[in-house]
Amino acid sequence: MRESILRLIAFPAALFLLLVMLLFQNQAKGHDKTAVQPFPASEMDAFLDHLDRHNKFMGSVAVLSGGEIVYSRAVGLADAAQEIPNTDRTRHHIGSVTKTFTATLILQLAEEGKLRLDQPLSDFFDGFPAAGEITLTEMLYHRSGLFSFTSDPEYGSWMTQPKSRGELLELMRGYEQHFEPDSRMEYSNTNYVLLGFIIEDVTGMSYQEALQARITGPLGLEDTYYGQTISTDRNESYSHSYSGGWEKLPETDMSIPHGAGALLSTPTDVVRFARALFGGELLSPAGLKTMTQLKDNFGMGLISYPYHDKTGFGHTGGIDGFQSNLAIYPEDDLYVAIAANALSWSNNGLLVALLDAWHGKPLELPDFDTVTLSAKHLQTLAGTYASSQIPLEIRFWEEDGQLMAQATGQGAFPMEPGSETRFRFDPAGLAIEFHADEAGDYRSFTLFQAGMEFLFERK
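Above: the chain's sequence. Below: its structure in token form.
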């Protein structure tokens, strides 16, 4: 989920748009279109071990190709306090990857004639602004104009407490319509919580029962289900952050994210679900075509995922300290999933590494070395910079001996120094290199992200 602790990803929204909307669109020079088999497991193991040693990633990954799991690996701890290790069967919260399951359930019900995608929200729930104009299709595409309740500044004060359906509906009805339905796209968890409720009302089942009857049961996905309070007795992981040691993070009550982000799963289950979805086991060809029709790079419960000269589909997820990613390339019969219960590096960077490995491209270990710089030097970098290539300004300043950055309209984030001129922000997978002019003044920098480069100049 997004724009709060229940978030789609764990870095500022403008940087998310920069990374995901242009996801993996680095140049395709030298791209090998033929997969290298077998999967280079030892190289990927070394990559994951490197992240693990530097306390950047705990969780697991899976790659399914040719109908088989060709690679899976788990690293780190499911519960750092009890020193319980992650395994391939450890269940992690997958956040907004839940939306892909929810959209599939809605489309199944539409194919069976139990609801229509052009039905208005008012057929199911009244009291919402413009409910008679908002269709299920617009909710699936995040084009409803319904305000995302997880973006409420007060959200963090009650997210750990249980909420009844009635309480959530009252809360969501209380926000003003954010924009006219279908006039634009804006990600909103409200859409998919309501879609989850609609699934329950139409089927007469709980979300978990409908999921079990329609997806996880038929596919034999034993590790995918609606979450409860986390328990290691059920082989579930806690989410953590690292600050000199692993710290357990607060736990969102699962009554809240519902169809927008309440599922637990494993990467192996997620890729098996994705292959079944695109293999015609869950939807008809017409239903899948409807689901994958893109508007503003979004499908129904899916996002466009370019990689070099290929275009696939997927979704990211994040809730508390959990992060997940799913990438689908049907033409290659390639499905990749990540489920992390701690990640302080780039979610998408890890996904790119897995895709590169499958395509036989060499893996470069990330540089996590840092240096200590004086406050005086950091102050010479301070200022506001803009780019003619993308509509984004970034301001830098020194604070307590650290270089801080803030993109237009976003929260501040710290930059880690690798040298006097090179800095990075690992959660977004970005790096910047400051450039000095002939007088030694820093007047510009280059931003590197997802294989792309953008020049920014001081205003």
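The chain is about 25% helix and 25% strand.
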